Amino acid sequence: MRQADWIARALTPWEGDYTITGVIPAGFEAYARVLHPVDTPENGGSLVRWADVAAWSGMPLRPDAQYHSVALPPTDPGGSPPGDGQSPLEGSLYTGDAMALASIAREWTATPQDCWFCVWDGYGWDGPSVSAYLAADGEPPAIVEEPRRDPVPGQVRDGPRVLLPHREYLLYRGPAEDVVAPARLHGTRGQCANLWWPADRSWCVASEIDLPWTYVGGWPELISAILADERIEALPATPRDPVNRVEDWVSGWVNELADGVLARGEASVTTSRGTVEARLRRPGKLRKGALFVRTERHDGSAGSTGDTTITADEDLRASLTLYLTLEVLGLAGM
């Protein structure tokens, strides 16, 4: 769709060092990250910000902080974290933050009533609803697919699509406040637009579906206003910032696990939030390997158990590091 062609041209490839301009267009003078809350009233809880979690853990909320930077500290701070150890919402602004951001951003465009919005077409809103029915006589439950009303208006569902690298979006148009339009639709669970910008392209907002924050690019004065507004929680960003990184103490736990698993076939490590146990069955010429992992949190909340297939042609150390990193980060609710 031609309205979004400029975005496709300004995104950097998802290769090598994955920086924020793989999510939001390059070329703006300033950028910010709006942090998604850990819990919100619309989810039935209270509003819990990253700063609340940082206050619990005693860790600074630095501009380059990942969620685990404050939720998985080097040492156990004691007690349960705010939000009961949940992770922030991924892929969408909290609707309260979206409205606050729209009210700020509309002051920095000549076309506040004429904005474009993209919603990822992968939420399955137009798919069937899958239900399980318990059968009689101890038989396994029957899985039944039932038709579900598509909440997306027909003119949007049948309208033009925006094709960007790795993502396909539905497109709609309206004033800046319509960023929350998808959240008003039945069954969308508070989802806001994933990508939005005014017709004059003076700024752009991007909520990548797998990230617990939203990027904003625009004039330095706009970014300063966002950072200063107490209604939202935001940190400064630069185009060179990596999208994801791992804190040194987390890498230390992971390396300890990987060393033990490679040397002895099994290992465990105790972190500030819980324990991770891992056991490796090495791959051979005629069989695939497997990594078995069990996690348990200190606060008594449920841990997890899982296994991952590993093939002989993989870089074993690199594969172990990747899988074990995900398991350790999972202790922080991620």
Describe the structure.
The protein has 334 residues and is α+β, with helices and mostly antiparallel strands. It folds into 2 domains: 2-36 and 89-237, no CATH class; 248-332. Helices cover 22% and strands 24% of the residues. It has 8 helices and 14 strands. The protein has helices at 5-10, 50-57, 67-71, 95-105, 154-157, 220-228, 248-264, 316-329; strands at 30-35, 115-120, 129-133, 142-146, 161-164, 167-174, 195-198, 204-206, 213-218, 234-237, 266-270, 274-281, 289-297, 304-310. It has an 8-stranded antiparallel beta sheet with strand order 5-6-2-7-8-9-1-10, with helices on one face. Strands 11-12-13-14 form a 4-stranded antiparallel beta sheet, with helices on one face. Strands 3-4 form a two-stranded antiparallel sheet. A hairpin with a 2-residue loop joins strand 5 (161-164) and strand 6 (167-174). It is globular. The relative contact order is 0.18.
Main attributes of the structure:
alpha+beta; 2 domains; eight-stranded antiparallel sheet; four-stranded antiparallel sheet; 14 strands; globular
